Amino acid sequence: MFFFPTLRMLGLSATLSGAVVAQACAAPALVHSDPAPGARVAAGNVAVKLTFDTVIDPFRARLLLLGPSGVPQLLPASPIDDEQQSIATSVALTPGHYVLHWRMRARTGDPVQGTLPFDVGAPAAPVAAR
Asked: What is the pLDDT of residues 69-115, one digit of tens each?
């Protein structure tokens, strides 16, 4: 007699735990970037920072930069916070249009990727002292 209510309770338990697991394994989403998409930055040493909504696996992160030369450049990146939700690097860039292709993975989730287009202009002229 207790067989069907027990099965029903086990099924509900399995369904609820599956929802929790699915949420915990979600792919990370980009919440902030430097430079911002479409931004124009000064030529020279450009800092690149990507921040995500969850803990990422920095050892599986991939940053590929395409610039005006058309030659792809693989950029090294390191976690910059204890929570490991951000990675950063810097690269010397000349004026032109650039697209950063990124690919991230949460520690237990699926990979996610995206692009970040930005422009690099001439370095700012120094301000003369009067």
From this structure: 999 999 998 888 777 899 999 999 999 999 999 998 877 777 889 99
Can you tell me the distance from the alpha carbon of 116 to that of 114, in angstroms, rounded to the nearest whole number? 7
**pLDDT at residue 25, rounded to an integer:** 53
Decide if 108 contacts 28 (C-beta within 8 A).
Answer: no
Strands 96-105 and 44-52: unpaired
What pairing do the DSSP bridges indicate for beta strands 44-52 and 86-93?
A: antiparallel
Structural element, H or E, at residue 48: strand 44-52
3-class SS of residue 4:
helix
Structure tokens at 118: 């930005």
For the chain, helix, strand, coil in percent to 5 are: 20, 45, 35
CATH number of the domain bearing residue 110: 2.60.40.1220
For residues 75 and 89, the answer to whether their CB atoms sit within 8 Å is yes
State yes or no: pLDDT of 126 exceeds 60.
yes
Domain-embedded: residue 14: no
